[in-house]
Amino acid sequence: MHRQDLLQLLQNYHPKDENERKMVLETQVFVQQNSLCFERSLPSGHVTASAWVISPDLQQVLLMHHKKLDRWFQPGGHCDGDPDVRRVALKETEEETGAFGQLVGNEIFDVDVHLIPANAKEAAHFHYDIRFLVVADPATKPAANAESKEVRWVSMSDVPYYNSSESILRMQRKILASV
C-alpha cells in the first residue's frame, strides 16, 4: 500500500454527513500534495490510523484513556512511514489495548481531521485520521500500555459520558444506526 492505495480508499469511501465529506476532501488534498504524508516528521501534519473496536453484538466499544491528552479515545496512532493504514490501525489497537481484533470489511469506517495542540516537543499540527471498524471479543480483558491510563469496554449508549466530541459521537451514531 502506498499513497495511491490510500487515495483509492478515500475515493471509494462515502461519508455520512457534510462535515465528514469536507474532511475526506481535505485528507485527499493533503495526501496528494505530501509525499511524506505517512511520516511523523512532516511538521504540518500526517496520516494516522485508528480503530473503532466493537463487540460482536454492537453493544460495546473499546476505549482508552489517553495519558498525554487526558481524554477517552479509540485506539490508534501514527503510521511512522507505514502506508498500510489498515495494518497500522490493527497494530495500534493491539499495542494500546491488548485486544486482537478483526477488520469488518476492508473499507474506511470514518475519517477525521483534527488539530493536535503544540507541546514541548512539537508545534501544533494536523492528524488526518483514517478509521476502520474492528470487532473484538469483550471477554478478553484489555490491557493498558504506556500511552494510556486505562482501557475499558464501554456500553455503546454510554460513549457520550466518556467523550462527547463530534468525532467520537459520529462513530457511535454510525453503529447505532446499524442496530
Automatic annotation (TrEMBL):
<dbReference type="Pfam" id="PF00293">
    <property type="entry name" value="NUDIX"/>
</dbReference>
<dbReference type="InterPro" id="IPR000086">
    <property type="entry name" value="NUDIX_hydrolase_dom"/>
</dbReference>
<dbReference type="InterPro" id="IPR015797">
    <property type="entry name" value="NUDIX_hydrolase-like_dom_sf"/>
</dbReference>
<protein>
    <submittedName>
        <fullName>NUDIX domain-containing protein</fullName>
    </submittedName>
</protein>
<feature type="domain" description="Nudix hydrolase">
    <location>
        <begin position="44"/>
        <end position="176"/>
    </location>
</feature>
